[in-house]
Design goal:
Radius of gyration: 18 Å
Number of domains: 2
Number of strands: 0
Order of helices and strands: HHHH
Amino acid sequence: MTEIINFIGNHQEIIFFIILSVFVGVEVIGGVPTVLHTPLMSGANAIHGVVIVGAIIVMLNADPGDYLALTLGFLAVVLGTLNVVGGFVVTDRMLEMFKKK
């Protein structure tokens, strides 16, 4: 428990920046019109592809005994993959609405 408190104390600026980024992101995405959701989803898919590659690289460089880093990396790969696949499925379904029958 002391390690967690020390970590938070040493990284207050980074934690504040991440929390602020989450709030700004929610406000920006919440203001996007419905028409732009398909291009926005495509951009998010590309970003999460980078997240997957980054998580794999971090897992490869992690110490084999560091189970926390390996678990978080694995979770990042799984959730990033689900987001990419789900995004492409939603984008495909939305684009099919505009095809002529």
